[in-house]
Amino acid sequence: MSEAVPILSTHGLVAGYGDFQALFGVDFEIVPGEIVALIGANGAGKSTFLRAIMGLLPSRRDMIRFDGAPIGGAPTHSMVGRGITMVPEGRRLFTGMTVEDNLRIAMDCARSSARRSESAPWTIERLHELFPILADKRGTPVERLSGGQQQMVAIARALLGQPRLLLCDELSLGLAPAVIRDIYRSLPLISATGTAMILVEQDVGLAKTTSHRLYCMLEGRMTLTGRSENLDQAAITDAYFGSHHAVA
Ligand SMILES: Nc1ncnc2c1ncn2[C@@H]1O[C@H](COP(=O)(O)OP(=O)(O)O)[C@@H](O)[C@H]1O
Ligand SMILES: [Mg+2]
């Protein structure tokens, strides 16, 4: 997989909020169909990294490449148009609306976007196969769903955008272990369609077992990267909490 051409790469990416710098020269790459986990303590810069990729924070053009083309700092709608979609922290569903309506809106948005003419692997029917509970709950207002079910709606909604790159921010946060398992079981099925996924995850064990490769971030810098199966716990712990280890 590592010989494949990256769908997305970052090159010395710096980003922040006004005068506050949160990312200090991040190098990263992901190829189609790859699941890459991004771990790191609270405040390390994981969400900032995703926001920079989505064009929600300014960055220099050549610091982010998609399909080889420099896209850093392009507006968010153009990132979405290229096929980058985010499942944000906290899900942000349309409350007061049913599961079905949340998904229909996403369908309509996808249809009117630049990607409408491409083959669309994700339909509501296929999402019901991925998350059968969403078929049972189709008429239920989303605020009456459990946290795990809401997360499934958030993922389903993102998939209706037919992403080539899916950014997931802390999918498992606050969810019960059984539903986390259900959600994580769906991820290989998503990547099997060719979609690349960046998974920001606090649970290091879950991150490691779900991903092909893993990056660890500490205070706005990547401190470790490698194939997930090859990374041992001691190296991850050092990269996560910081020590005198060099960048791998
Ligand atoms: N909207 C914001 N305005 C100012 N500083 C922010 C904002 N969001 C995050 N930060 C700061 O940027 C740094 C990285 O935050 P974040 O990317 O949210 O970390 P993580 O997702 O790894 O927990 C932290 O120091 C955080 O306080
Ligand atoms: Mg975060």
Task: Give a brief description.
This protein has nine helices and ten strands.
Shape from CA axes?
globular
Estimated share of beta-strand residues: 15-25%
| Count of distinct strands | 10
**CATH architecture assignment name of one domain:** 3-Layer(aba) Sandwich
Strand order within the widest beta sheet: 6-7-8-3-9-10
The CATH topology label of one domain is Rossmann fold
Structural class by SSE content: alpha/beta
Q: What is the CATH superfamily of one domain?
A: P-loop containing nucleotide triphosphate hydrolases
Overview of this structure, please?
It is a single chain. This protein is α/β, with parallel strands linked by helices and 248 residues long. It has a domain at 8-93 and 163-241: Rossmann fold. 34% of the residues lie in helices and 23% in strands. Strands 6-7-8-3-9-10 form a six-stranded mixed beta sheet, sandwiched between helices. It has a four-stranded antiparallel beta sheet with strand order 2-1-4-5, covered by helices on one side. A hairpin with a 2-residue loop joins strand 4 (64-66) and strand 5 (69-70). The longest helix is centred in the last third of the chain and has 15 residues, at 177-191. The protein is globular and about 50 Å long. The chain starts with 7 loop residues before the first strand and ends in a 7-residue tail after the last helix. The relative contact order is 0.18. The model has no long low-confidence stretch (mean pLDDT 92). Bound molecules: adenosine-5'-diphosphate and magnesium ion.
